[in-house]
Amino acid sequence: MPTIAITRAVSSSLGYCELTFIDRSQMDISKAIDQHKTYRNLLSSLGVELIELTSADDMPDAVFIEDTAVVLDEIAIITRPGVESRQNETQAVRECLRNFRPVNNIEEPATLEGGDILRIGKKLFAGLTGRTNLDGIRQLQLITANYGYQVIPVPVKGCLHLKTACTFIGNNTVLINPNWINPDIFSGFELIEIDPFEAWAANTLKIGNSLLIPAGNPKTGEILESRGFKPVEIEIGELQKAEAGLTCLSPVFEY
To answer: Given a cut of 90, is residue 186 above it in pLDDT?
Structure first.
């Protein structure tokens, strides 16, 4: 089955994005566009089939398309982002995903963002954050229960999303920043802690045998190599000014 990634072009208004845990700084939109293009090219070189939605200049955060949907093997769930400025982003994503999966929706007053959902097999770890609330997690449980999924709430502190603090990197292993979530949540999994001076290194994206990591985290890269992984650095520094991580830039799924 082909691997598909849905991406969305960088908005000219990205500099007005929502920020929660970092301060706003001057952003070079042209550089952000170039970094996004490099990301897309890298995915393509790894055999991923790309679908790109058009940019939306009135939606600064639309490039962070992962937050708008949770795509499972059996179903796609359109989320309800936790800030009003992002809630119109879901319409185009819904229309796209209807070509691949039956679609369900998180309904008001619940909020849920894809960056807070970490899937490992039939377990859905759901970050309880400022963007995803208990009602959103409850609705996710109701929607996915018939497909055999277990939803596990995870309190998160100090960062925007659960997948800012941890990602699944294969081989029954989770890469984690233990300052932002309790590692005990992942009992039964192998854990690799990031270098403590590279707080943003835990958000990675596994494509086949390659593990994409954000540039600027050399110590964490060395830790991963020592454990048998093959990290591939990619520069997303300009996008990180918008509180982004690698997973934010697309939902990736098989079809």
So the answer is: yes
Q: Give the C-alpha separation, 5 to 144, whole Å.
A: 22
pLDDT at residue 55 above 90? no
Query: What percentage of the chain's residues is helix, strand, coil (to nearest 5)?
Result: 30, 25, 45
Q: Spell out the domains of the chain, with CATH numbers in brackets.
A: 3-254 (3.75.10.10)
Residues involved in catalysis: 161, 248
For the chain, how big is the Rg over CA atoms in Å? Answer: 17
Q: Residue 1's pLDDT is what? A: 82
51 close to 2: Cβ distance less than 8 angstroms:
no
What residues contact 157, with CB distance under 8 A and at least 6 apart?
180, 181
pLDDT at 56: 87
Say yes or no to pLDDT of 141 above 90.
yes
Stretch (H or E) spanning 205? strand 205-207
Q: Are 157 and 183 in contact (CB under 8 A)?
A: no
